[in-house]
Every structure is written in structure tokens, then in C-alpha cells.
Amino acid sequence: MNRLKHRGPDWSGLYQHRDSYLAHQRLAIVDPASGDQPLFNEDKSVAVTVNGEIYNHEELRKKLVNHKFRTGSDCDVIAHLYEEYGEDFVDMLDGIFSFVLLDTRDNSFIVARDAIGVTSLYIGWGLDGSVWISSEMKGLNDDCEHFETFPPGHLYTSKSRGFRRWYNPPWFSESIPSVPYDPLVLRRAFENAVIKRLMTDVPFGVLLSGGLDSSLVASITARYLAGTKAAKQWGSQLHSFCVGLEGSPDLKAAKEVADYLGTVHHEFHFTVQDGIDAIEDVIYHIETYDVTTIRASTPMFLMSRKIKSLGVKMVISGEGSDEIFGGYLYFHKAPNKEELHRETCHKIKALHQYDCLRANKATSAWGLEARVPFLDIEFINVAMSIDPESKMIKKDQGRIEKWILRKAFDDEERPYLPKHILYRQKEQFSDGVGYSWIDGLKAHAAKNVTDKMMLNASYIFPHNTPTTKEAYYYRMIFERFFPQNSARLTVPGGASVACSTAKAVEWDVAWKNNLDPSGRAALGVHLSAYDAEAPLISNVPSKVIDSIPRMVEVPGVAIHT
């Protein structure tokens, strides 16, 4: 339990029934006074330990009128739903969650993970026949002969000894949708996604980088916070948080949005050396050797520590938008709507290995919870049912990346954001965080990895062989913490340009010789995507267009190139 104590510093719970053990480290967000775990049904024959938030728990309680609840915790419904519906209740849950449920009547158990994999989860098997479940790899890697990432949207039962996918939305088949784009429908769906995440009994805030996604999250939160239970407890003025390199113009952009929305803004600074000094801790907590994820996790990791020191326990963040709407720069090269849609499907399905992993673990390292409204299952259903023709980037029609999201919140009467914020260009994190940050990481890696070491890389690391000194450096650190073969298999690999899937590399022949996670690798797109001769944004004055800086967004992290 001590290996995961950072995730839940508020309470440690342990329950044993015969040869089954449930252990829990609680971060108390809803009902902090009485929601300690494990949670039980009335006669304690069903025990549950869960990490996450069930946003529709009040509606679910109304369906369980014959049940008596022990706590006000949103997760208290799980044991009672199991009593009523058996293992088929999981798709009734609207939220983010990973849980283990033990039925002591026959000593069986079930395990489930939320639809997209916002919460992290691993499963392992011991030589003695034991099955291990943990929110982080470090909770089981030393005790299991084999372990792996628990797949999102799946259920595991001890009776079947196998997995079953419970999450089966229409978009999962990757068939091409045809629903016409309606900006008001999309707007309302996202507003609902943000509003339901205001469910909290503790102080909270928003991560604000000044980019489109986090700025929309902050705008909607500020607009609807008044009148909520959270506002009654903690006040109606929203707190926002941003971290960046000293003197970054993008810190100014975040401050501009904060001033526009009237938030209490907290600005944190870090240096390149601060980031380098934190790399080992970041890799230990994030549990990956993926280059882009480590680059992006480090500032978020440093910021989370600062936020927690202020007494804040939950933040709302903007992950997932680029995957849903085709917001990465390489989507400029999508040859048609069919390819674009399939790529967005692949990106969403892989989020648990990248941005969800980062957002969950970089914050949980300091006992902070991140909520991500763009990955709300109802919102995803709406956004992924839209004819992908509307998501295609067409310069001659004034449609930049994520145009349909920008247009949905372009309200002249009650503006959500200033025009130049609403129509700011997207850029990869590793570029927008500042070339000095990335170049600093590369220089540091070069001091620790020699050319001679690189010559033997394929023999030392035959799986996902690192091709750069930076990747080799991260891999060495990862293998020191997690030396098992199962551990290295949890990290994805393959050809990628500017965060694309391997399939999308085929969109441009030039990319095959320029594979790099940086947005700079998106040849013909980065920096030159919006030439002055092309109409960029409809109904926006040219002087506003000229003032739009090229940005990246990891929510709350924004440092200029």
C-alpha cells in the first residue's frame, strides 16, 4: 500500500476475506467525512474499492429505492447496483473509474475500468495462482510473473478468468458517421460535460494555458459555477493555474484569459534545470519511456505539486479535444474525411497510453485529481457522430483545425472567449513548451548517452529500440525502476510524426524520413500552415489574425516557442 500512498493521502483502508484482500488509498473529493473505503452493501457481503468519480450517482440512487446507503460517496452505488443487476451494471455508470468488487458469498470478484481509461489500472498474475490489480504498475510489478495494462472499457471476472468489453459506442466500429454539424448541439453537450464535473466537496480549480481547450473549460466553469454546491461551499470565484518558463509570452496569454474570465489566477515558473532534475521522479510516477509523454508530463508534474500545496485537491483539464476533433498539425494532411475519422478513432482508443496516463499520474503523484470533460462519454458520442467532413481542415474556406469546436463557442452576444483566443492555432506540446526546454532535454541526454551506446541500442533494448539519445536516456531510467519484460511491453511504440499513429505517417511521403514527436516534423504544416495569402478565419479582422501566436496546449502548461 505504501507504494501508492501518494495517490490517496487522506485514508488507508484494508479488508480481508479468506484469501482475498482489498487495499485502498483514498483521495477524498466527495463526502470526505464518511466515504472511506472499502465500501459495502447493507450486509457487507459485497465489498468495493474504487478510484474515480461517478457523476450520475444521484440519479442511480433513485433507482435503488430499496437499498440503504452507508455514506454519501458517489461510489457507494456500485455495490448496490451489483446486487440489483449483476455484472451488467457497469455501463450504467457515467464517470471515470477503476474498481474491484468482491462478492464474499462465493468469493468471486469483478474488475472494471472506465470507457476511455482516464483512470489508470493494471492487472497481474502470480506464480502461486494469485491475481493482482493496481492503479499503478509499481503496486504489482515485483509480485507478478506477468502483468499488463488493464484495457479501458473492459470488465474482468474471476469466474470467466477473462476480459469482456462493456463499452460499445457507435464510433468504436470506425464506420463513417453522417449526422450534420449543429454548433448549438455540440456546444450544449460540452457545457453539460463540464457542469457535471463541478461535483465536489473540496477546493478545486482549472488548468489554464491560454490555449483553446483549457480556455473553453475555464470559460464554461466560470459561467456556470455560481449556484452550484461547490460555489456555496468554496465561493463562486474560480481559481486557475498555469506553469511556464520565466518570461514566456504564453504565460501572458493564460493571464489574459484569466483576466477576461475573472478567475483568481496562479502562475508558477520553472526552469529547464528544474525540469531536468525532475525527470527521474516523472518516469517513476508516470511509468513510461515514451518521449512525448515524458516531455509533456514534467511541467504538469511540477505544477501539480504547487497546486496541492495551496490546499486544492481537484482540477478540471482539457485533454482529449485534439483526438476527437483532429486538432494535431498533421491532420492538415488528412487525404479525406474517411481517413480523418479513422485516425481520430484510433487516437481516442490510445489515449489511455498517452494523455490520460499523463494527466492521471502527473496529478496523482501529489494527491491531486484531474477531471477531463472532453472525454465525457456523452460528449464523445455527440462529437464522433458528426459527419467528419466538418472536421476537415480547409484553408480556402477559413477552416482551421478544430473549426467546429471554435465555431460552436463563437457567440457574439455572450462571448465565451476573445476572438484571438478562440481562433489561436494549435501546436504540439513539445514545441509550444519552448525549444529551449526540448533542446535542454536533448543536450542533457547527450551528456549521459554516448555514440557507442547508441550503436548497441538494438541489442540492449530489442523491444521498442530507442533511436535517439533522449529516448535511450529515458529508457535507461525506466528499466532501472521497472526491469521486467511485462513493464516494457506496457509502453507503445511504432512510427509517428507529430504524435500521429503509424497509419497517418503514410499521408505524406516526406514524413517517412522525418519521424519525430515534435510538431516541427509536420513538414509543410508547422509555421507555414496559415500563409498570409489564404483566408484563415471567417469574420475575424486581419490584424487579429496577425496577433495569433502559434501555441500548444497541455492544460495549464504553456510556454512560447
Strand segment count: 16
The CATH topology of the largest domain turns out to be: Rossmann fold
First-residue to last-residue Cα separation: 42 Å
Low-confidence stretches: 427-433, 527-552
Structure description:
This protein is α/β, with parallel strands linked by helices and 561 residues long. It folds into 2 domains: 2-168, 4-Layer Sandwich (Glutamine Phosphoribosylpyrophosphate, subunit 1, domain 1), CATH 3.60.20.10; 171-480, Rossmann fold, CATH 3.40.50.620. The protein is built from 21 helices and 16 strands. It has helices spanning 57-62, 77-85, 183-196, 212-224, 229-234, 249-261, 272-286, 291-309, 321-325, 337-349, 355-364, 377-383, 403-408, 419-422, 429-432, 435-448, 451-455, 457-460, 469-481, 485-489, 542-546, and strands spanning 11-17, 20-26, 39-40, 46-54, 95-103, 108-113, 122-125, 131-134, 146-149, 154-157, 162-165, 204-207, 239-245, 264-270, 314-316, 369-371. The longest helix has 19 residues, at 291-309. It is globular and about 65 Å long. 51% of the residues are buried. The model is unreliable at 427-433 and 527-552 (pLDDT under 50). ATP binds at residues 207, 243, 317-318. Pathway: Amino-acid biosynthesis; L-asparagine biosynthesis; L-asparagine from L-aspartate (L-Gln route): step 1/1. Residues 1-161 form the Glutamine amidotransferase type-2 domain. Its EC number is 6.3.5.4.
